[in-house]
Amino acid sequence: MSFSYGRKLRVTLFGSSHGSGVGMVLDGIPSGVLIDWEQVKVQMERRSAVGKPYATDRKEEDSFEILSGWSQTGTDGGALAALIPNGDIRSKDYEEMLFIPRPMHADYPAMVKYGTGYNPRGGSFFSGRMTAPLVLAGSIVRQLLEKKGIYIGAHIASIAEVRDKNFPALALPQTLLRDLATQSFPVIHQEAGLKMMEEINRAKENGDSVGGTVECGIINLPVGVGSPWFMGLESQLSAILFAIPGVKGLEFGSGFEGTKMLGSQHNDAYYLKDGMIRTKSNHHGGILGGLSTGMPLLFRVAFKPTASIAKEQDSINMHKGEECKVSVTGRHDPCIVPRALICVESAVAIALADELMIEGLL
Questions:
Q1: Strand runs (DSSP E) across the chain, as ranges?
Q2: Is the pLDDT of residue 273 over 80?
Q3: Average pLDDT score over residue span 289-297
Q4: Which of 65, 62, 64, 68 is nearest to 26 (CA)?
Q5: Average pLDDT over residues 324-347
Q6: Are the C-beta atoms of residues 14 and 3 closer than 8 Å to each other?
Q7: Rounded CA gap, 194 and 252, in Å?
Q8: How many C-beta atoms lie closer than 10 Å to residue 319's C-beta?
Q9: Nearest to 349 by CA among 104, 188, 124, 147
Q10: What is the pLDDT of residue 62?
Q11: What's the pLDDT score for residue 327?
């Protein structure tokens, strides 16, 4: 099923942007697991547009209701299901675009595939609204990982041409990951963050949008997690990360920059540190042959500029069969990267927890 991910830990998303709500079913959580719901709410607030001047004017609290799988003593072993009501919906913004595919959206192929049954308002189930239940599921699962000492964090690596510092590749401090999670606009270098905000505001004033990248890091992952070939750790992470709306690229370690190096420069030499095997550099990004190496797992995710923009663009009126102009009048983020960051963290948590459960390590 295209709305489900996982083998031992299975996540299923449901709902749509302009329906009554969105939600998730998390199957595979053992019974008796205690969940800090206040911490889950904190993670949900990181994705929400409320209180964020750089985000969409559509404001939803992302409050959730647990439908099953939970009792006062913890998880009960059944499927953990939750519903997130939609609010602040203005479907009338889309009335003139019901037969006009918006450039760089899924509208056109979805209209062809699903016909009159497809409702394009708000992007339907292709919408970024669907990341709310993804974050909810990931926020629950990451608590299981943290109990095993595995921590996930991310920062805005770039917006347009403005870049932040990279994560330290050899020793990624847990304190840095924790500090970034408290920031509304997570960057390592605050001056870079201010320049990024200027790029976002400039695009918004011009009725346009900008894209960027998120760098994510995971620490304390045991050596050997993953499998070779088709079920390699990169493959599993790629599958769930590319499901996030707006993702167009992914690179691990040195990524494409590694193509500019010689093998002698790119190879990560081994050495002993406190009786443990480590590498002197981390161009491999913590994964070799589809298996974790014990070094920080580092990767970067590229997000396209928000497709919904006020600028007039060319399209086709499929009902009339003629060319036309379209301007997206709804409320949208001029840059999705700041709010997508928590989506990346959540997706990674789900993928890692699934693999660790399969290997009996979680």
A1: 4-5, 10-15, 21-27, 65-68, 70-71, 74-75, 80-85, 151-159, 162-163, 212-219, 247-252, 270-273, 276-279, 287-288, 291-292, 297-303, 313-317, 322-326
A2: yes
A3: 98
A4: 68
A5: 90
A6: yes
A7: 27
A8: 9
A9: 147
A10: 85
A11: 85
Structure token pair of residue 152: 């996930």
Residue-wise pLDDT tens digits, 26-57: 999 999 999 999 999 999 999 987 777 777 76
Q: Which of 104, 135, 166 has the alpha carbon at shortest distance from 42?
A: 135
Rg (CA), the chain: 21
Task: Look over the chain and give the mean of its residue pLDDT values, rounded to a whole number.
Answer: 92
Structure-block tokens of residue 362: 């979680």
**Bridge-based pairing state of the strands 270-273 and 247-252:** unpaired
Hey, what amino acid is at 171? A
Residue 245's nearest CA partner among 316, 301, 310, 181 is 301
> For residue 325, with 0-12 CB atoms within 10 Å meaning exposed, 13-18 middle and 19 or more buried, which class applies?
exposed
Q: Which two tokens stand for residue 321?
A: 């069969």
CATH superfamily assigned to domain 4-358 = Chorismate synthase AroC (3.60.150.10)
Q: Domains of the chain: which residue ranges?
A: 4-358
Among 182, 178, 180, smallest CA distance to 164 is for: 180
Contacts 24+ apart (CB under 8 A), 230-235: 231/290, 232/287, 232/289, 232/290, 232/291, 233/287, 233/290, 233/291, 233/292, 233/297, 233/355, 234/287, 234/290, 235/290
Tokens linked to 356:
């660790």
